[in-house]
Amino acid sequence: MENRGLMLNKYSVGTGDRFAHQAKAQLQACIKALQSGIEVVPVWNKSNREHMIIGSEPSSVRQAADAAVKALAWKLPYFCDADHITLATVDRFLEPCDFFTIDVADFIGQPPQSADIDRFVKRHPELLGSIQLAGVDEAFDITAEDLRQAAQKFLAAVKKAGEVYRRVESAKGAGNFIPEVSMDETDRAQTPVELLIILAAIADEGIPVQTIAPKFSGRFNKGVDYVGDVAQFEREFALDIAAISYAVRQFGLPRNLKLSVHSGSDKFSIYPAIHAAAMRLNAGVHLKTAGTTWLEELIGLAEAGGDGLALAKEIYAEAFAHREELCAPYATVIDIDPAKLPSPDQVRGWSSEQYTSALRHVPGAAAYNSSLRQLLHVGFKVAAKMGRRYLDLLEANEAVIAKNVTENLYNRHIAPVFLGRNT
Ligand SMILES: [Zn+2]
User: Fold this and answer.
1) Ligand 1 centre from 265 Cα, in Å?
2) Cα of 336 to ligand 1 centre, how many Å?
3) CB 242 within 8 A of CB 198
4) Ligand 1: distance of its center to the CA of 83 in Å?
5) How is 240-270 classified by DSSP, letter by letter?
6) Could you give phi then psi for residue 326, rounded to 5 degrees?
């Protein structure tokens, strides 16, 4: 399964751009990384869910990406990611996208045919017993029962990934896209041992996977910091990397196969662990951030004052009024404390500084309000409904917004993860 086509670079950052107005500002953050001596290529990701809520087409992501690359004369690769697609949703992404995140989380735990389990266990005697991994001081000890249990749990999901992969392959041709398999949107984390067994099954299924997104332990809420045991995360992350390099050698998966961290954005407290493990084990990383760029748009509008600030306040008031309906699709990935949400009346009296410091994610800052941030994060539907009114103000305030978008992506994400720097 060697790569004979598109290959994802060692370091890449997935960024969302809900309203397709910030691709240039986002790319500028990759240019800053390049100027600091590291190649981090951009991947513009947008899920079917986001397209449905906004009423946009996948081709708009491609147009925005192409235009930004042209305007800034970016010479390295870049990609458009059909994020979290399934067989039911993949079709309209086939043309504009060249990166496909095949989401099979819903199929985890569905029972496979028992003959499939037998065949899998028989085919992988090398997974039984003690497996020594390079670069970590722990070994995997896998019993026949462990192998059967993992097969029971994951084979149906991997088979589904194979179906989606082949659907994309038949439309685009092998090697003309980057396949990722994601299993993060489920309630239980996968262990490093399970990851290794999943990769064996993915290789059996013939998927030349270049990135894999397991669910890590701890909570990855949207737009706010990690909640969990950072030391345990670091240990698991290193073991996952070791499992991947073992799987690449053992099962012939693509050499550039790496972890994709579906961060939901802003997992600042685990960024040093990701950086340290990736450097120590010489591993690549794909850091997928969520749509927090839209929050930088709001911050920019608020910072601009005048009409921009007024609109940012109006968006908060609307989001507050519809908070239950806006939060419902994201219930498992947000933790909002209703008591911490300021009333729209209160917010109406805020200055630019009060609005931006409540929303801007500066950990430890007294004014930072993670409940308000999460509500606005899922509140993009409110801005989408405003249509031209919102977009016109984005365009009128482009400079101040772009500055926030670039600084946020570079200083808070790229620099800590890829350069090990907190700026
Ligand atoms: Zn995800």
Assistant:
1) 11
2) 20
3) no
4) 8
5) HHHHHHHHHHHH---TT-EEEEE--S--GGG
6) -70, -35
Q: How far is the CA of 214 from the centre of ligand 1 (A)?
A: 9
Q: How far is the CA of 84 from the centre of ligand 1 (A)?
A: 7
382: its two tokens: 């409110």
Task: Record the pTM.
Answer: 0.95
Q: Which residue ranges in the chain fall short of pLDDT 50?
A: none
Distance from the CA of 222 to the center of ligand 1, in angstroms? 10
Say what percent of the chain tops pLDDT 90: 89
Ligand 1 midpoint to CA 7 (Å): 21
Tell me the backbone φ, ψ of residue 420, rounded to 5 degrees.
Answer: 70, 30
Q: Between helices 388-396 and 293-304, what is the axis angle to 10°?
A: 70
- What is the pLDDT, as a whole number, of residue 2? 54
Ligand 1 geometric centre to CA of 210 (Å): 16
Ligand 1 centroid–CA 355 distance in Å is 29
Provide the CA 330 distance to its chain's centre, in angstroms. 15
- Among candidates 303, 333, 322, which has minimal Cα distance to 393? 303
Q: How far is the CA of 187 from the centre of ligand 1 (A)?
A: 12
DSSP states of 152-207: HHHHHHHHHHHHHHHHHHHHH-TTSSEEEEE--SSSSPPPHHHHHHHHHHHHHTT-
Q: What are the φ/ψ torsions at residue 130 (nearest 5 degrees)?
A: -100, 125
Residue 288 CA to ligand 1 centre (angstroms): 8
How much distance in Å is there from the Cα of 302 to the middle of ligand 1?
29
* Residues 250, 127: Cα–Cα separation, whole Å: 10
Cα angle value 29/30/35 (rounded, 5°): 95
Tokens 């370091």 belong to residue:
11
Give the gyration radius of the chain's Cα atoms. 21
Dihedral sign, CA of 153, 159, 165, 167? Answer: negative
> Which residue's entry shows tokens 């997928």?
288
CB 155 within 8 A of CB 111: no
Per-residue pLDDT at 101: 98
With beta carbons less than 8 A apart as the criterion, state whether 241 and 283 touch.
yes
Distance CA 142, CA 401 (A): 52
* Residue 398 token pair: 């482009």
- Give me ligand 1 centre to Cα 47, in Å: 9
Whole-number Å distance, alpha carbon 182 to ligand 1 midpoint, is: 7
CA distance 36 to 30: 10
